[in-house]
Amino acid sequence: MSNNTTATVTLTQKNYLAEAKMRNHFAVIDEPLDFGGDDNGPTPVEYLLTAIGGCVSITLRMYAQRKGWNLGKITVNMSQKEQLTPQGIKKSLVEEISFEKEVTEEQRAKLLEIAGKCPVAKMVKEATEIESKITI
Prior knowledge:
- This protein is of the alpha+beta class.
- The protein has two domains: 1-42; 44-136, 2-Layer Sandwich (GMP Synthetase, Chain A, domain 3).
- 31% of the residues lie in helices and 28% in strands.
- It has three helices and five strands.
- The protein has helices at 44-67, 105-115, 119-125; strands at residues 8-11, 18-22, 25-29, 74-85, 88-99.
- The protein has a three-stranded antiparallel β-sheet, with no helix packed on it. Strands 4-5 form a two-stranded antiparallel ribbon.
- Strand 1 (8-11) and strand 2 form a beta hairpin.
């Protein structure tokens, strides 16, 4: 199966400001002022959190529509958690999902299972291989 999803990111000459192009869409990436950036856009980690939250919410909506469940608005709050361990700082992601409409305990359990099937979250959880090369 071939998936031709691509993104091109170009770091500009202005500190850490990067310009990204995905299909016909554009975005900027930057670091906050206290990390040497100019705070012109979200950080790469914030985009990762957004990508997972967006994917989870879309995956849940698709499933709920097939089941005929009206969940109303779906909100996914994503955050990065850092914990000091004897081995150093351990980073993890926290995902909190809520629905505008009430759901039963049975629906809640199934929706939590389906949330785990979001393709973007699976890429992160399964440590997707990245092939890196420098082109001329």
